[in-house]
Amino acid sequence: MIEAAERNDVLPVCPHCRNEIREVFFRQVRGFLGKRYLYFCPHCRAVLGVSHRKGFWMG
Is 23 helix (H, G, I), strand (E, B) or coil? Predict the structure, then answer.
């Protein structure tokens, strides 16, 4: 198993533009079954990921 370690002395790098990421932009996307959040690079605006927040009835 791979362990996770918190590191505050290094910055992540965008896989698209290779700039250091000091902040991540996000935008809420509404859908039929809850809210989704789209995360993107502030430099090149490439999408870095999408998350899903479940409603209270979905567990």
Answer: coil
